[in-house]
Amino acid sequence: MMKTQAHRPTDAELEILRVLWDRGSSTVREVQENLEGRRPVGYTTVLKLMQIMTEKGLLERDERERAHRYVPKATREQTQQRLVSELLDRAFAGSASSLVMQALASRRADPEELAAIRRMLEEIQQEEGR
């Protein structure tokens, strides 16, 4: 049974997606070599994962060349938004402020991140004031 784009990627699938988001269209060998720089991973393991990800609707495969090329079906931002939305509903009963406060309490944000958060909050306030 094939799943739609709403499939939640596993940790291993997210690793592959990160490589593809950073590199763009890539072969299994290119993804495997990139992952190999972080930890040992076999070609057949990456091939099988990418085949499964294609069946699940996470990747598209271009079969025009001998070495098939893969691209993610969703952007990094779309995937992050979907994962955060699921987490927000499941763990925080839909409370965005609880999610943000827990995130900031669990990991110290650097000054640049805090400045970006302030700008985003100001933009949201301005939009609500209209």
Plain-language structure description:
This protein is mainly alpha-helical and 130 residues long. Helices cover 63% and strands 8% of the residues. The protein is built from 6 helices and 3 strands. The protein has helices at 11-23, 28-36, 43-56, 76-92, 96-106, 111-128; strands spanning 26-27, 59-62, 69-72. A 3-stranded antiparallel sheet has the order 1-3-2. Strand 2 (59-62) and strand 3 form a beta hairpin. Helix 2 (28-36) crosses helix 3. The longest helix has 18 residues, at 111-128. The protein is elongated. 14% of the residues are buried. Residues 1-5 have low confidence and may be disordered.
Overall residue-averaged pLDDT value: 91
- How many H/I helical runs? 6
- Inertia-based shape: elongated
The counted number of beta strands is: 3
- Share of helical residues: 55-70%
**How large is the share of residues in beta strands?**
5-15%
Span from first to last CA? Answer: 47 Å
Report strand order across the widest sheet. 1-3-2
Please provide the ordered H/E string of secondary-structure elements.
HEHHEEHHH
Describe the sheet with the most strands.
Answer: 3 strands, antiparallel
- Spans of at least 5 consecutive residues whose pLDDT stays below 50 are 1-5
Structural class: mainly alpha
Q: Radius of gyration from the CA trace?
A: 18 Å
